[in-house]
Amino acid sequence: MQTMAAGSSSEPSWMTDELRGFRRTVRALIETRFVPHVDRWRANKRPDRAAWAAAGQAGLLLASVPETFGGGGGTAAHDAVVIEELARAGIQFGVGPQNYVAWYILKYGSDEQKRRWLPRMARGELVGAIALTEPGAGSDVAAIQTTAQRHTHDYIVNGTKKLINNGALADLVCLLVKTAPDRPAAIGMSLLVAETHDLPGYCASQPFDKIGMHEQDTCELFFDEVRVPAANLLGTEGQGFTQIVEQLPYERLMIAVSAIATAERALALTTRHARERRAFGGPLMDLQHTRFTLADCATHARVGRVFLDDCVRRFLGGTLDGATAAMAKSWLTDCEWRVLDACLQLHGGLGYVLDSPIARMWVNARAPRIYGGANEVLKELIASSL
Ligand SMILES: Cc1cc2nc3c(=O)[nH]c(=O)nc-3n(C[C@H](O)[C@H](O)[C@H](O)COP(=O)(O)OP(=O)(O)OC[C@H]3O[C@@H](n4cnc5c(N)ncnc54)[C@H](O)[C@@H]3O)c2cc1C
User: Fold this and answer.
1) Which end of the chain is more exposed for a tag (fewer CB within 10 A), N or C?
2) How many Å lie between the centroid of ligand 1 and the Cα of residue 138?
3) Do 179 and 237 meet the contact criterion of CB atoms below 8 Å apart?
4) How many angstroms is it from 331 CA to the middle of ligand 1?
């Protein structure tokens, strides 16, 4: 039986020897090809193109896509390992959106579409973005205004997408559009894949200046009379809303994975800090308030880990329902925030300096409570399942 010190982070219960080997590869790539460059990414508000190629070469991208389509042939557990390792290094790299786009193509695309896009996405030659949100519609997805009108062999797309991760580098934008604006959302929306290279009428803004996630390019995307071949429709016209709802549990699970890995990292860093930092003649750790705060953080992280591992196992077994995925995303990102805020406080003024790891984690942890479905919206979803 595995034993461990109370409060230490546990290995996920879904871990296998093969996944451990994969984790070592992922960690080595992040340490050698990402960490030394992240300051430049932050200055440029986007990662280098070369990082995408390196990630592709090392198998970080599309790890759960079958090998027939150029992917790693693994499962969502492989994707989770990549997300955990990025969280462990404190780096925001858009492997999430890349995998979400791949999953839409894999689930709803034709064989020709899968062969055309997935191998190049796996190699990091094509960067993917998922574009649902608009200036006037985020939580209320049904209120989007972007339209795609069919003209013989093309759709003509008009509209603006906002806050889109991987937006500056995106070669493939998986776009939610209204193909029948007068029909109800459930049958009036579709998913189109826009190939952005030299695409007339398409442009991306400069990345936004965000509170955190400074190395991640989050942009506004403009579509002005953009022609997208009808052959780039994913699945059946009018099914976009259903397709989004069907795939959200995967996205929400991955956000939850990142949340717990980050909380565990914050706990480890802060415990070390509390043992090393001295005040009033002894280490901070000798103060009862510090010990109790860290005890609470450790409890949150452990309870979160157990719940998350159950969700990952359910997902791998095909039984993770939408409401439970929403619980994981909302509860675990709130849990991450509580832990990080407490941990930053224990770092004192040093924790407020942006270059300190705890400050980076804190600013980054604010967004996951909003994206992937704002946590308040997810409570509605959970309540409707009761
Ligand atoms: C860093 C970052 C990256 C993002 N990346 C992407 C991306 O790649 N692709 C993409 O499509 N989108 C992306 N988004 C957008 C994100 O998904 C939306 O911000 C989110 O869905 C919330 O929508 P909104 O911002 O329009 O907020 P609104 O819909 O205006 O809601 C504002 C607030 O009102 C409350 N609220 C709204 N509706 C309800 C309700 N029914 N019940 C209770 N409270 C409610 C919530 O507190 C919510 O936070 C990103 C956002 C951020 C911050």
Assistant:
1) N
2) 5
3) yes
4) 16
180 lines ligand 1 (CB under 6 A): no
Ligand 1 binding pocket mutation candidate from 141, 377, 380 (most atoms within 8 A of CB): 377
Class at the top of the CATH hierarchy for domain 242-384 = mainly alpha
284-323 pLDDT, tens digit per residue, is 999 999 999 999 999 999 999 999 999 999 999 999 999 9
Beta-strand relationship, 172-178 and 128-131: parallel
Q: Which fold has domain 128-238?
A: Butyryl-CoA Dehydrogenase, subunit A; domain 2 (2.40.110)
Would the pLDDT of 5 be above 70?
Answer: no
The CATH superfamily holding the domain 17-122 is Acyl-CoA dehydrogenase/oxidase, N-terminal domain (1.10.540.10)
What whole-number distance in Å separates Cα of residue 85 and Cα of residue 228? Answer: 36
Residue having the nearest C-alpha atom to atom 51 of ligand 1: 371
Encode pLDDT of 201-255 as tens digits: 999 999 999 999 999 999 999 999 999 999 999 999 999 999 999 999 999 999 9
